[in-house]
Write a structure and sequence with these properties.
Blueprint: E1 6-10, E2 19-23, E3 33-43, H1 45-52, E4 64-65, E5 69-77, E6 89-93, E7 103-107, E8 112-113, H2 120-138, E9 148-151, H3 157-168, E10 172-177, H4 180-188, E11 193-196, H5 202-209, E12 215-220, H6 227-232, E13 234-242, E14 264-266, H7 270-273, H8 277-291, E15 300-305, H9 309-317, E16 324-328
Helix pairs in contact: 2-3, 2-8
The structure holds NADP nicotinamide-adenine-dinucleotide phosphate (NAP).
C-alpha cells in the first residue's frame, strides 16, 4: 500500500480558500472499522455548509476534514469486522468521518459494496443524490401518476436526478433553474415546465400554468430565496420539503403561514433515512439500479484532483455547474 496519506483540511470556517492540502497520519482502524484507500470523492453541497459553518448543531470545529461521501478499496479490517474483506470496493456516506482525504478509518456497518459494473466517477457523482431522491420521492408522501411537483435548482446534481426519476414515476414536473442555458438543459431531462427563476417570477408562472390550482409537493433545496414563494405555489394540503439551503437558511418562519391552506412542511436529511443499516442497504440497492441504467443522465461537470477542492467549491458556489463535481485523491 502507498503509505502517503493526505487531506484537504478546513483550517477555519469561511470561503473555499480556508481549505489547505496537508499530509496526515495514516488512520488506525478500531476493531469495528476498516481502512479505506479512497479512489473518488463525491462533492456535495453539504461539504460547503460544513466548511462555512452553516451546518446547524453538528458542525465540527476547525481544523477538520469536510465531505460526506467517497468510494475506495478496503485495505485493512478490524478484528470484529464481518461485512467486508480486504480488496472489496466500497462506498459510504454520512459515516461520521470527513472524506476529502486519501485514507479513512470508517465503521464497517456504514459500508456498501459497489457493483463492479459501476465506475468510481458515476458512484461519486450519483450515490448521495440518488439515495436522497429515493427517500424524497418514495418515502415522504404517496405520489401518483399525473401529480404535480416542483423541483428547484433542477440543473444541479440532485435536481437532475429528481427530475428524471419524477418523470419515470409519471409525475408532471415543474422545474426552476438559474440561467437560460440551465433551463434548456433541464428541458432535455424531460421536465414539463421549466422556469428561469432569476428572470421570471416562478410563483406567478406556476399559478398561470396551473390555473391557480397549484402543485402537490415542492422539493425545496434553495431555502431562503425561494421557500416562501414555494409555499404560495402549493395546492391545499400540499407539502413543502425543505431539504437544502443553498441560498441560506429559512429564518423567522411563522407557523401560522400554513393555516389558510392546511399546508405541510418538513425538513428531512438523508442521515436519518439511512441510520438503520437495513435501510441503508435497501436504498443503496435501488440506487445502484438507477446508476446502472446508462439512459439515466448524471452529468459530471468536472473531475478534479483532491488538491483542487478549492476550485470545486468555487465552481459550485458561483452556480456555474450543471450536474456533479468529483474529486480524485
Ligand atoms: N437533506 C438531504 O438529505 C440532502 C441530501 C443531498 C443534497 N441536499 C441538498 O440538495 C441541494 C443540491 O445539492 P447538490 O450537491 O446536488 O448541489 P447542486 O444542486 O449541484 O448545486 C446547488 C444549486 O443550487 C442553486 N442555488 C440557488 N441559490 C444558490 C446560491 N445562493 N448559491 C449557490 N447555489 C445556489 C444553483 O442552481 P441555479 O443556478 O440553477 O439556481 C446550484 O447549482 C443542496 O441544497 C443540498 O444541501 C440535501
Amino acid at each position: 500500500m502507498n503509505q502517503s496519506c493526505y487531506a484537504m483540511i478546513v483550517t477555519k470556517l469561511g470561503g473555499p480558500e480556508v481549505m489547505s492540502y496537508t499530509s496526515m497520519e495514516m488512520p488506525i482502524p478500531k476493531k469495528n472499522e476498516v481502512l479505506v484507500e479512497q479512489t473518488a470523492i463525491g462533492v456535495n453541497f453539504v461539504d460547503i455548509y460544513l466548511r462555512a459553518g452553516q451546518s446547524h448543531a453538528h458542525n465540527p470545529e476547525p481544523p477538520f476534514i469536510t465531505g460526506v461521501h467517497a468510494i475506495g478499496i478496503v485495505k485493512f479490517i478490524g478484528k470484529d469486522v464481518t461485512e467486508v474483506k480486504v480488496g472489496d470496493r466500497v462506498t459510504y456516506t454520512n459515516a461520521g468521518v470527513g472524506t476529502y482525504c486519501s485514507h479513512v478509518a470508517v465503521a464497517s456497518d456504514r459500508l456498501v459494496l459497489v457493483p463492479p459494473h459501476l465506475s468510481d466517477e458515476r458512484v461519486a457523482a450519483g450515490f448521495v443524490r440518488v439515495m436522497t431522491a429515493q427517500y424524497l420521492l418514495k418515502q415522504m408522501r404517496p405520489l401518483m401518476q399525473g401529480d404535480k411537483v416542483l423541483i428547484h435548482a433542477a440543473a444541479g446534481g440532485t435536481g437532475q436526478v429528481l427530475v428524471q426519476w419524477a418523470k419515470r414515476m409519471g409525475l408532471e414536473v415543474f422545474a426552476t433553474a438559474g440561467s437560460d442555458e440551465k433551463v434548456n438543459f433541464v428541458k432535455t431531462l424531460g421536465a414539463d415546465h421549466v422556469i428561469n427563476y432569476k428572470t421570471q417570477n416562478f410563483v406567478s408562472e406556476i399559478a398561470k400554468i396551473t390555473n391557480g390550482k397549484g402543485i402537490k409537493v415542492v422539493f425545496e433545496s434553495v431555502g431562503k430565496d425561494t421557500f416562501m414563494g414555494s409555499l404560495e405555489c402549493l395546492e391545499p394540503k400540499g407539502l413543502a420539503i425543505n431539504f437544502g439551503t443553498a441560498s441560506g437558511q429559512v429564518e423567522n418562519f411563522a407557523l401560522q403561514t400554513l393555516h389558510s391552506k392546511s399546508l405541510w412542511i418538513c425538513r428531512p436529511t438523508l442521515r436519518t433515512y439511512i441510520a438503520d443499516k437495513r435501510d441503508l442497504q435497501s436504498m443503496a440497492k435501488e440506487t445502484f439500479e438507477i446508476l446502472g441504467d446508462s439512459t439515466f443522465r448524471l452529468d459530471i461537470e468536472a473531475t478534479l484532483p483532491l488538491k483542487e477542492a478549492v476550485k470545486a467549491h468555487s465552481m459550485i458556489e458561483s452556480r456555474s455547474t450543471k450536474g456533479a463535481v468529483v474529486l480524485i485523491p
